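INFO  loader      accepted 1 record
INFO  loader      residues=180
INFO  predictor   begin
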Amino acid sequence: MTLNEKLEYALNAFFEAKAGDECSCCGNKIDEEGKCGCGPECKHCGGQHDISEAKKKDKHGTFYLTHLAYINNKAHSDLFSIIGNMFINALKIKSLIRIKANFYPNQGQFVEHEYHVDYKFKHIGAIFSLNTCNGYTKLYDGTKIDSVENRLLIFDASTKHCSTNTTNAERRLNINFNYF
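INFO  predictor   done
INFO  writer      dumping tokens
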């Protein structure tokens, strides 16, 4: 099994959870906003599951899923132990802000999402594509970086950029890193 196949297999397991599922640490139901009711004092989930367990809808009525592996100076899921050190070393990360996996399912219509910045302060962003599809990341200057398996895009994520879904593959799958 290739590295990408292992990563994709692991990520698919994380994306299977959804609203209505039980939180693995407290057993409470996860609501549509990703809240389980544990509260912020919970050391495992902090009472908030990233919206990988619920759908994020855009203005086009399409949705995508996300999964946080690392945030707030700590691992947020087991995905961090699978990919963390590999990328931290390869990217020469001095201080990690966030690792987030993105899953954009093919919904029969191609959507370019709104421009955004990951964080308003200057930092580095990296997007690792796990599959090849007609999706892309678009920088504010109009440059499009196609989603090609094993491609790593490194850029200033404090500048505007946008993402897309896909229409020629089952899904667009990537991992987003924010760091110094």
